[in-house]
Amino acid sequence: VKKMVSLIETSIMDLLTNHGIESHLKDGAPGVYVDGAKIAALGLKVKNGRTYHGLSLNVDMELFAFAQINPCGYQGLKVTQLCDLTDNINLDTIANELSQILANHVTRH
After folding, report:
1. DSSP letters along 15-70, please?
2. Of 7, 37, 72, 89, which residue is the catalytic one?
3. Is 72 a catalytic residue?
4. What is the pTM of this model?
5. Is 109 domain-assigned?
6. Residue 59's domain is classified under what CATH number?
7. What is the residue-level pLDDT of the chain in tens, covering all 109 positions?
């Protein structure tokens, strides 16, 4: 599971790099960050021989709701989104691009 989490994080970081956005990881806090603000969350679970996968990349959404909660359980965690970091973002294009990047990473490992 840890290897797959790493592949997903790397794929998201590669996508962001393709759009001129520098990103990073935080020790002990899965997900991808830009200037300390979380742009992507993910989770994987294996239970009773079944796998559950989840990935959330903030592309173009209302972020005000995050101020009302503790995102990912972290009080005061800032969140960001692609449309605030670069121009001409299209959800379908981003989804396809991320799918291709992730597929390339998975088939190489």
Report:
1. HHHHTT---EEETTEEEEEETTEEEEEEEEEEETTEEEEEEEE--S---GGGGGS-
2. 72
3. yes
4. 0.85
5. no
6. 3.30.930.10
7. 788 888 999 999 999 999 999 999 988 788 899 999 999 998 888 889 888 878 889 998 877 676 666 666 667 678 899 999 999 899 999 999 999 999 999 898 7
